[in-house]
Amino acid sequence: MKKQAKVISVINWKGGVGKTTLTHHLAAGLQHISADEFEGFLGHRSLPKVLLVDADAQCNLSISCLTPERFAEMVYDSPTTIGTLKELFEQFLQNEQSTINVEQYILKACVKSGNDKVYDHIDLLPSHEDLIYTDMNIAVYSRPNFDQKLIGADIYKFQILNNILNAVKNQYDFILIDCPPNLNYVTQNALYASDFYLIPTIPDRLSSYGLSSITHKVRSLNDLFRSAAKMYKETKLIGIVLNQIREYGGKPKDTQDNIISTLKELFPTDIFEHYLTHGDGISRASAHSCPVFAFPHSNYTKQIDGVINITREFLNKLGDGVVV
Ligand SMILES: Nc1ncnc2c1ncn2[C@@H]1O[C@H](COP(=O)(O)OP(=O)(O)OP(=O)(O)O)[C@@H](O)[C@H]1O
Ligand SMILES: [Mg+2]
Q1: Residue 161 resides in a domain
Q2: Is 174 inside a domain boundary?
Q3: pLDDT value of position 44
Q4: What's residue 323's pLDDT?
Q5: What is the bridge-based pairing of β-strands 236-242 and 6-10?
Q6: Which positions fall inside the AAA domain (predicted)?
Q7: Is residue 316 in contact with ligand 1, taking CB distance under 6 Å?
Q8: Are strands 122-125 and 50-54 parallel, antiparallel or unpaired?
Q9: CB-side exposure of 101: number of CA atoms within 13 Å?
């Protein structure tokens, strides 16, 4: 069966809530789900092929996959530096029918699964620190003889990432985009290119406050995109994943629990039942540029099981058509 990736943006304009951690771990979690569980969803029993897209100039996802040293060497230091999402944005901004071979920009099998081992089915489209200028470059660029306006800008300015990903969608089951903590052009491109979006958050008052604004903004962007591009299909919310939960006696501590209850009232069907606990497993994994699965299960049972359960719920929500 020919693949046609589901594209999912992991977004929240609040910083440090776990976007990168969740994106990285979801890709790994999908490699640990049994074939029976995803067969119904994917229609095949081989491990899901996942493309990670680092759309953040902080390059945290690229570093989480490659280590800071290897990433710097590959992208900035070496005489034969590799291409990144930044160059692809530049090329596809000027010409949507770019002759560029997108595949050449993708690093194959670059997420560590253990000592000297990698997940064969997870690839990465890396970022570049100069992607920080891409929003501005898109804003000032003017394609000759183009005048189909959207929010005061030409519609092609929101379709760049979609055109890039269309070139490789048939090779993946999932494309997961780690978005930056803002709603500038690159993030809007990610939303345009995505079938779904997933919001990680932490249970504090200020983070919770911003959640409605995210869903409202995505809704109005969907309306705007649809008005300008008839083929556009709305980007749907998969759900909201709670991160950094501190437990006491097997359940969230009271202060967090109160916020979680409020969130469940506000978003009754959207909050994931499973959450990710705050813990050393994720911190240690981050320090070693690998997902928590790379360590023996017994060391970090809580967080490994948390990721598996979130992944399972993610698949169920997609499969159930919650978001149809
Ligand atoms: N469940 C967790 N337990 C412990 N540490 C965590 C957990 N989740 C995230 N972290 C740590 O918190 C920090 C922020 O997480 P992360 O980088 O994933 O957030 P982000 O939303 O991507 O941030 P940004 O907005 O800057 O892109 C990282 O150092 C990460 O390792
Ligand atoms: Mg991040």
Answers
A1: yes
A2: yes
A3: 76
A4: 40
A5: unpaired
A6: 5-226
A7: no
A8: parallel
A9: 2
User: Is residue 114 lining ligand 1, measured as CB closer than 6 Å?
Assistant: no
- Name the pairing type of β-strands 196-201 and 6-10: parallel
Tally of CA atoms within 13 A in the half-sphere of 104 that contains its CB = 8
Q: Which residue has the tokens 């501190």?
A: 246
Residue 138, helix vs strand vs coil: helix
DSSP state of 277: B
**Residue found by looking up tokens 């009232």 in the block:** 265
Number of domains in the chain: 1
Report whether residue 286 contacts ligand 1, using a CB cutoff of 6 Å.
yes
Would you tell me how many other CB atoms lie within 10 Å of the CB of residue 288? Answer: 14
Q: What is the pLDDT of residues 275-296, one digit of tens each?
A: 999 999 999 999 999 999 999 8
Residue span of the structural domain in which 102 resides: 6-320
Q: How far apart are CA 126 and CA 207, in angstroms?
A: 28
How many angstroms separate the alpha carbon of residue 59 from the centre of ligand 2? 8
Residue 48 placed within a domain: yes
Q: 278 in ligand 1 pocket by Cβ < 6 Å?
A: yes
For residue 1, tell me if it sits in a domain: no
Low-confidence ranges of the chain (pLDDT < 50): 321-324
Identify residue 48 by its one-letter amino acid code.
P
Q: What does the DSSP assignment read for 136-150?
A: HHHHH---TT---EE
Give the tens place of pLDDT for each residue, 202-224: 999 888 889 999 999 999 999 99
For ligand 2, a single-atom ion, which residues have Cβ within 5 Å?
Answer: 19-20, 60
What is the distance in angstroms between the CA of the first residue and the CA of the last residue of the chain?
22
CATH of the domain at 51: 3.40.50.300
